[in-house]
Amino acid sequence: MRILIADDAADSRLILQRLLKKWGHEVLVAEDGAEAWQILEKDPVSFVITDWMMPHMDGAELCRRIRGSKRPNYVYVILLTAKDGKGDLVEGMECGADDFLNKPFDRGELQVRIRAGERILRLEKRLEDRNNELQETNLNLGRAYKRIEKDLQATADMQRRLLPDKDKEVPGVNFSWLFTPSTFVGGDIFNFFMLDKGKLGFYHLDVSGHGVPSAMLSVTLSKVLSPDPAQGSFLLGVGEGVSSRDVTPPNEVVAELNRRFQNDESMLYFTMVYGVLDLLTGKLEFTQAGHPCPVHLRKGFPPALLGNGGYPVGMLPDVEYDLKVTNIEIGEKLLLYSDGISECKNDAREEYGEGRILELVAGESAGPIDHLTALLEKDLRQWRGDKQYDDDISLLVIERSC
């Protein structure tokens, strides 16, 4: 170890120098505190043995300089002194000395004090190394988080591209929707599309859980629930030709999804409403699978809840699903939403609730659907406050216009 000696007494310096070299240390020598400070400014010495009483700069001031400087390494200081009063000890500690040794010093005691200082410096070095490792780990974690964040943002963009186009038009029907995932990506997904023979297919589903696993299943489901006949979509049944195939009843569609998505490993399941609306007659066929009940808005009538529950998809095998039938007249609306809305909690931990939804939309049966969506979004935001949503928020409104 390299040790700096600061002492204005030549004989004391010489004795210390010989002893330290004998014990295997490399020794630097200064005749007073000022010279010692000059050495410390240029040389990363970690151990100093200094006399207290010296001209130009005494040992106490040297300690204060060392402690007040921004050095890359800790400097252990032993203060040699003829003072032995309690007040002197306190003064030396306040200056920043680590240890004291009375003059004339005992060689064995000096060696023990140096070994104690070496142990502290080794501990300090290990702590410094660990801090450096932690800093490097934090940097690596930061870089990894940025990569993950970038990937999640790309996944979120992909998921949003799977949602209906805001400008998409279907003759005879209007649409409005809201989608706010609780994280970058969410488990909610919905869509609408033309099937065969003037019939509109639509779904709204909510995968259990949050984050990437739920989002990936929702993306998979959006692909499965594609009406493209060229891909052999099971949304269209068997007919005489591709262009004349019958539309698969909603309860059979949901039952097929339940058969395909039984997964004991992931434990993921999903709730959904899948329906088919005949745009010519207004006949609505739908199946509810553990999803919140759709809300039927009719002018002159209070909002009505459709359906009675059903089992979530992927939870239990061989479940039979009911087919519900009703009519959507021209000017009437159908509102589909996830439980992230009804179960959204305010600061008092109260749920938004199904009743609040019905109360809010009661006067909107004849109004534009975009206003209905904006109204619910605003009220929900006021209910939640500034906090992030605990669950995905999604809403799909369908209006038969002619």
How does the SSE layout of this entry go?
Layout: E1 2-6, H1 10-22, E2 26-30, H2 33-42, E3 47-51, H3 59-68, E4 76-81, H4 86-95, E5 99-102, H5 107-161, E6 173-180, E7 188-194, E8 199-207, H6 211-224, H7 250-260, E9 270-278, E10 283-289, E11 295-297, E12 304-305, E13 324-327, E14 333-337, H8 339-342, H9 354-361, H10 369-384, E15 393-400
Parallel strand pairs: 1-2, 1-3, 3-4, 4-5
Antiparallel strand pairs: 6-15, 7-8, 8-9, 9-10, 10-13, 11-12, 11-14, 14-15
Q: If you had to describe this structure to a student in words, what would you say it looks like?
A:
With 402 residues, this protein is α/β, with parallel strands linked by helices. The protein folds into two domains: 2-130, Response regulator (Rossmann fold, 3-Layer(aba) Sandwich); 162-400, Phosphatase 2c, domain 1 (4-Layer Sandwich), CATH 3.60.40.10. Helix content is 38%, strand content 22%. It contains ten helices and 15 strands. It has helices at 10-22, 33-42, 59-68, 86-95, 107-161, 211-224, 250-260, 339-342, 354-361, 369-384, and strands spanning 2-6, 26-30, 47-51, 76-81, 99-102, 173-180, 188-194, 199-207, 270-278, 283-289, 295-297, 304-305, 324-327, 333-337, 393-400. The strands form three sheets. The chain has a five-stranded parallel β-sheet with strand order 2-1-3-4-5, sandwiched between helices. A five-stranded antiparallel β-sheet has the order 6-15-14-11-12. The longest helix has 55 residues, at 107-161. The protein is rod-shaped, with a radius of gyration of 39 Å. 31% of the residues are buried. The model is unreliable at 239-244 (pLDDT under 50).
